[in-house]
Amino acid sequence: EPSDPVQLSFPMPDVDTGKPRTYGPDVSTDNRSAFGNALLDIAEANPSLPMAVLDCDLAPSVKTDLLWKKHPHRFFEAGVQEHSTAIIAGALSVNGVLTFFADFGVFGVDETFNQHRLSDINGTNLKLVCTHLGLDVGEDGKTHQCIDYLGVLRNLYGFKIIIPADPNQTDRAIRYIAKTPGNFLVGMGRSKVPIISDEQGRPLFGEGYEFEYGKVDLVREGNDGVVFAMGPMVYRAIQAWEMLRERGVRVRVLNVPCPVDLDREAVRQAAETGLVVTYEDHHIDTGLGSSVALALAEEGLSPKFVRMGIRTYGGSGKPDELFASQGLSPEDLVRTVLDALGAK
Question: What H or E segment, with its residue span, contains residue 293?
Answer without folding.
Answer: helix 288-298
